[in-house]
Amino acid sequence: NCLNSNKFGFTIDGGIGQNNDPGLFIIGIKENGQAAKNGRLRIGDRLMQISNIYTTINLQCIEFDMALKLIKRMKKESTSVYFLVAHQT
């Protein structure tokens, strides 16, 4: 399971049941994609939540398939989507 989203320019993997850690993590950043141009996301970052102008959703301890559906829905609902991430130390 992994989300490769050209719209955001990064790939995620993880979620409940995938590893010992149930988090969703950025595993790739597309060169010249939105995430690379923004420069704030890094491989290994944990997705904590996603927000648009209508909704904020907690992405901690969630199954991958549900996270994928929610991320797609958030993108469809609004042109502005924000991710809260935790960087690795």
Structure overview:
By secondary structure, this protein is α+β, with helices and mostly antiparallel strands. Helix content is 21%, strand content 31%. Strands 1, 2, 3, 4, 5 and 6 form a six-stranded antiparallel sheet that branches.
Summed over residues and divided by their number, the pLDDT gives a mean of: 85
Biggest β-sheet, characterized?
6 strands, antiparallel
Number of helices: 2
> What value does the Rg take, in angstroms?
12 Å
Which shape, going by the Cα principal axes? Answer: globular
Distance between the termini: 25 Å
Strand residue percentage:
25-35%
Helix proportion range: 10-25%
- Low-confidence stretches at least 5 residues in length (pLDDT < 50)? none
Q: Secondary-structure element order, as H and E?
A: EEEHEEHE
* Helix-strand category: alpha+beta
Number-wise, the strands total 6
Q: What are the salient characteristics of this protein?
A:
89 residues; six-stranded antiparallel beta sheet; single chain; 2 helices; globular; alpha+beta; 31% strand
